[in-house]
Amino acid sequence: MLRDYMNQVAILKSVIDTNMYNEPIFKEKSISCRLVNNFKRVINDKGEEVISSGVVQCEDVIKVGDYIDDRKVIAINSMVSLDGVIGYKGYLL
């Protein structure tokens, strides 16, 4: 059902390695998604309270620290159905 709403395309930049200066090296990929821009207080992976500027809903595997349209992924929420099945994930930017 979510696939009907994933009518936007975003650029995912995943960290694959670091160079000799310890800077991340990225791999770019186009993903189908749904981007919702809104502000929300969330807890990041370090336990700090931060402001999220949007949510990307998609079925691709994305990690905290990756970039979607040059915005860093700071937290991940799973959307679970009433049957307990994870349908998709929401990536907070």
Q: Which helices and strands occur, and which strands form pairs?
A:
Layout: E1 8-18, E2 24-36, E3 40-43, E4 49-52, E5 55-58, E6 67-68, E7 71-72, E8 75-80, E9 86-92
Antiparallel strand pairs: 1-2, 1-6, 2-5, 3-4, 5-9, 6-7, 8-9
What does this structure look like?
The protein is mainly β. It has one domain. The chain is 0% helix and 57% strand. The protein has no helices and nine strands. The strands form two sheets. A seven-stranded antiparallel sheet has the order 7-6-1-2-5-9-8, with no helix packed on it. The chain has a two-stranded antiparallel ribbon with strand order 3-4. The mean pLDDT is 83.
What would you call the shape? globular
Helix tally equals 0
The structural domain count equals 1
Distance between the termini: 23 Å
Q: Quick one: biggest sheet?
A: 7 strands, antiparallel
Report the order of strands and helices. Answer: EEEEEEEEE
Q: What oligomeric state do the depicted chains represent? A: single chain
User: What share of residues is helical?
Assistant: under 10%
**Low-pLDDT runs:** none
Lateral strand order in the biggest sheet: 7-6-1-2-5-9-8
- Category from helices, strands and their pairing: mainly beta
Q: Give the mean pLDDT.
A: 83
Q: What amount of the residues lies in strands?
A: over 45%
Kindly provide the radius of gyration, computed on alpha-carbon positions and rounded to a whole number of angstroms. Answer: 14 Å
What is the count of β-strands? 9
